[in-house]
Amino acid sequence: MMLFTKGHATGNDFVIIDDHHGALDLRAEQVVWLCDRRRGIGGDGVLRVVRAGNVPDSDADDPAVWFMDYRNADGSVAEMCGNGLRLFSRHLLEQGLVGEAEFVVATRAGLRRVRELPDSTLATDLGEVKVGRAPVTIRHQGRELEGHPADVGNPHAVCFVDGEELDALDLTIAPTWEPAEAFPNGVNVEFIHVVEPGRLRMRVHERGCGETLSCGTGVVAAATVHRLRSGVEGPVRVSVPGGDLTVTFEDGGTWLTGPALVVAEGEFRH
């Protein structure tokens, strides 16, 4: 038997497993089972809580810092997950694994700062977003859209549509892209409707998951591309099916702020 925790951040839900000393061999098929909503626990991914010194591909200088080992629902390893980072941080706080309101979490995309705010929301530093100069072609439901590449530690393509188009999307169908070599490891595709400058609505198809209620790094990618295209200053507020998130820009970096909630604890057979 193994213990688990379950929670979500704006509807993006995850199974959390504590493996502080790196003793667990978390196989892809085990992740798929854990994330299965009928045969397992159910989630968009798995967050393994482990010390950085016990992760072979960690580049953190401090081996004692907590490392967020994130796996997509299909078992694949991902570099970063913005909503997962908030939930991971909420778990650290509730379990007493960190003692300050501001701390650092190691990820495959590098170290990320986290702040717990007075209203109990969490602000996470997702670093500098690298926006590609040349758009790619995103194909979906017989349409071709201009996709703006954005790297938030993981790959994104941001597409702008009108409100009716956004609501009508069937994201059980996975988008494709051209040129294929633009995203050799897959891509998260964000569909964005600009309600007004600084305010967006978004739906997303995540690689390894399909449509999710929210994607934190996707929200940051969308807000950054919108800011560059529109010249808007100040925070960008993004509404996703799972709730509302805010992106702010500080010293060339981006901060994502929103809620994260642990909803259950239990044990599973493996």
From TrEMBL:
GO MF term (any one): diaminopimelate epimerase activity
PROSITE patterns found in the cross-reference section: DAP_EPIMERASE
GO terms for biological process, alphabetical: lysine biosynthetic process via diaminopimelate
EC number assigned by the record: 5.1.1.7
Cell wall biogenesis/degradation among keywords: no
SUPFAM superfamilies found in the cross-reference section: Diaminopimelate epimerase-like (SSF54506)
Residue(s) at site: Could be important to modulate the pK values of the two catalytic cysteine residues: 156, 206
Matching Pfam families: DAP_epimerase (PF01678)
Positions bound to substrate: 12, 72, 82-83, 154, 188, 206-207, 216-217
Gene Ontology CC terms, in alphabetical order: cytosol
Active-site annotation: 81 (proton donor), 81, 215 (proton acceptor)
Keyword terms: Amino-acid biosynthesis, Cytoplasm, Isomerase, Lysine biosynthesis
Reaction(s) the record says it catalyses: (2S,6S)-2,6-diaminopimelate = meso-2,6-diaminopimelate
Chief location of this protein within or outside the cell: cytoplasm
Subcellular location: Cytoplasm
Pathway this chain belongs to: Amino-acid biosynthesis; L-lysine biosynthesis via DAP pathway; DL-2,6-diaminopimelate from LL-2,6-diaminopimelate: step 1/1
Subunit architecture: Homodimer.
Function: Catalyzes the stereoinversion of LL-2,6-diaminopimelate (L,L-DAP) to meso-diaminopimelate (meso-DAP), a precursor of L-lysine and an essential component of the bacterial peptidoglycan.
Protein family (similarity comment): Belongs to the diaminopimelate epimerase family.
Protein name (database record): Diaminopimelate epimerase
Organism encoding this protein: Arachnia propionica
Protein's gene: dapF
